[in-house]
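HOLO CASE FILE
Compound: adenosine monophosphate
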Amino acid sequence: MAEHTKRRPDLTPIPAAQNQILAAFSPLGAEDVPVGEAAGRVLAAEISAPIDLPAFDGSSMDGFALLASDTLGASLTSPVVLKVVADIPAGHHFKGGLEPGQAARIMTGAPLPQGADAVVPVEDTDYGVRAIGTQAPAQVEVYRPVERGDYVRPRGQDVSQGETVLTPKRRLRPQDVGVLAMLGFEAVPVSQRPKVGLMAPGDELLPLGAPLTPGKIFDSNSYMLEALIAGVGGAVVNLGIVPDQMEVVRTGLDRAVGEGVDLLLSTGGVSVGAFDFVRAVLEQEGELDLWRVNMRPGKPLAFGRYRGVPYLGLPGNPVSAYVGFQVFVQPVLRKLQGLSRPTPETRRVKLLERVESDGRESYLRAVVTFEGGRWVARLTGHQGSGNLYSLVQANALLMIPAGVTLLEQGAEADAWML
Ligand code: AMP
Ligand code: MG
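Model generated. Tokens follow.
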């Protein structure tokens, strides 16, 4: 039950704009980083295991290492009695071996002695003591039979030497980093971090800590965008707040170009006001490839090159800047790191209220909850693109396709979960 309008020919459709922007970038090279700094980075090479994991047969319990064949018929009423010939804490290796009739006290993670093929947990013996500093007993009564391999972590159970454990083009998660350390890697090759020159032009912008004077606002986009960039693995060269003066803007951009940034990103100055000079800068010092997209919020979007470096001008309104980042910049930063194009995590939701749009592809702030057995969505207040708090209250962006101007209450839509 959606109403449609004709698409505005002066506005580039979002998918076309995304394609055009992405095509301007190729993946960056790789660099080695210490494993301790690798979490969140994108792996750049295949990793195979140089060793088995576990690297040796070890005990998975505190107990007694023994020969399973010695425990046949053991019970509480007729225990098997074994001579304890060694005490093996974790990290220590018993050079001798076990013979039939013998056992070794063993702790979790300690290597199994030669000859042993199973462990009986302390709970199944007469020796339940494992307080710090206690001596191993001279002999132990075993109250139940165990089978070969019981409570033993065999060598190579998790990973065999030579096996591929991690494939490239994946973001390293904490557990990935853990397994790299388990395998003994000190450093790993990862994609270079994309460097983003970030600029906030605007005479109204104040740095944090400055007194709030009439007509001024605090620069918030720099902080939000820096966090977004870091969140997808990019590094920021912060060009800070600059006044609405063409020469100062140029100086900042030149500095970023000199620092070898992969992307110039600005927020604001792309509307059509008298002081919105991003367009002029690009037309003078490079090229403007894209101007205005069929999107709500965030219609003003500039893309081109400044002295050969790709330049993306996001709108100044904070919600537009956020949505513009998610739709256009995030895929670029992923591509630079060798990651595939993201498919937003969406949920099919039922609208709890009537939703209007103007026919542009819209991303509306919404709260998605699970109610009455299904996902439902309601908007979070006024959708003005300067109202950042309504984005703070949202957990999703409701996606209204281009051309749709009305969705009735009860209709379905896709929500992009944030
Ligand atoms: P502009 O695109 O420069 O016309 O800016 C559109 C709106 O966004 C104006 O209300 C600006 O004050 C606001 N704005 C621009 N830059 C920022 C920024 N860095 N942080 C917060 N708001 C901004
Ligand atoms: Mg401005």
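CASE NOTES: The chain is about 20% helix and 30% strand. Residues 93 and 111 are 6 Å apart (CA to CA).
CLOSED: yes
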